[in-house]
Amino acid sequence: MRERFSSTDTDSFSRIRAKGAPRRGRRSERFDDNEPEVVFRFDDHGAYAVAGDEYADFDGGHENHENYDDDSYDSYDDNPDGGPAGADRWSTWDQSTPTEKGPEPRPAWVVTELAAVDTELGLVKTGKEADVFLLERGVPGTDRRTLMAAKRYRDSQHRMFHRDSGYLEGRRHKESRIARAMAKRTAFGKEAIAAQWAGAEFTALCRLWSAGVAVPYPVQITGTEILMEFVGDESGTAAPRLAQLRAEEVDVEDLWEQLGRSLSLLAGDGYAHGDLSAYNILVHEGRLVIIDVPQIVDVVANPRGRAFLERDVRNVGAWFVSRGLPEHRVGELVGALEFDARLG
Q: 137 has which bridge partners?
């Protein structure tokens, strides 16, 4: 495997895995005997979990049924007898349903050919709930290929849910049994939460991309893996985060205007990012891109929605103020977004 990316932030970014390390593919996991089997599906409203045979009522079959195994996070391998030569797995494009694929019209760079293969090029970023990998999808024997970011949510044994309670207010599961498991943080409940976070992020990315918000294009979701646009150059070097940049390297005023437009579109749709800061905004060739939206907050349904919206602006606004933006501009943006969100 080649090193196809770089980063100056060694605390948040890791180098590529060693050749021969476990490959990634579809996951399988089983719960213990005291927990019901669960299947996670995604529709226009996000993720839902269905236990046992109830799954057939939702999708008319079990062709996309996912079994889970706590120790199988590092066992991504669609073909245990051997994957495609020179790659880690076949393309997973056909494993996603229409509602689990990105909005149309799709960008020309999205590779949808079933003959395509996926090659993992390295670990780009680690996080508390998920890790991001660099993935190349291409059609062998052609120049049809693209780089994507593969965001993979961890299983219940390796995730941290310290922030879930606040962000999940306003999100209610239609199955009372699943809602109770989520509230009690059982193994089954944590898997439901993981699916809800992944589904919420994918659904949000689809909605925000369609609305014109500066987010990565969401390619597809399978289980708790989201494939999305890789924000960086063709060599695999990821775009720097806003926090890494100095004032003289960027047009501060232009970036503030870009941020304001995207947050206005977000608020107008009734949402706040929920955890926005200079660390989850990328800047690529002058283009600002907002990332990491699993905790996106419905500012109307969530009783703390207004507080989340204001905190988003003030957190990222601190970076701009430290680089010359007049402080009153931050308060003005807060007021404008509250108006856009119809919060009064």
A: 118, 146
In tens, the pLDDT along 272-331 reads 999 999 999 999 999 999 999 988 889 999 999 999 999 999 999 999 999 999 999 999
Determine if the peptide bond prior to 105 is cis (ω within 30°): yes
| Opening angle at CA 204, ends 202 and 16, nearest 5 | 45
Q: What is the mean pLDDT of the segment spanning 218-244? A: 96
H-state helical runs in the chain:
55-59, 164-167, 176-184, 187-211, 252-268, 305-322, 328-340
Closest to 26 (Cα-Cα) out of 88, 101, 114, 113: 88
Could you give phi then psi for residue 242, rounded to 5 degrees? -55, -40
Residue type, 280: N
Cα distances (Å, whole numbers) of residue 5 to 122, 124, 240, 265: 8, 7, 12, 32
Rounded Cα gap, residues 313 and 318, in angstroms: 8
Residue 25 pLDDT level (bands cut at 50, 70, 90): very low
Provide the pLDDT for residue 14: 33
Is residue 43 helix, strand or coil?
Answer: strand
Q: Using CA atoms of 151, 27, 70, 23 in order, give the dihedral in degrees to the nearest 10.
A: -70
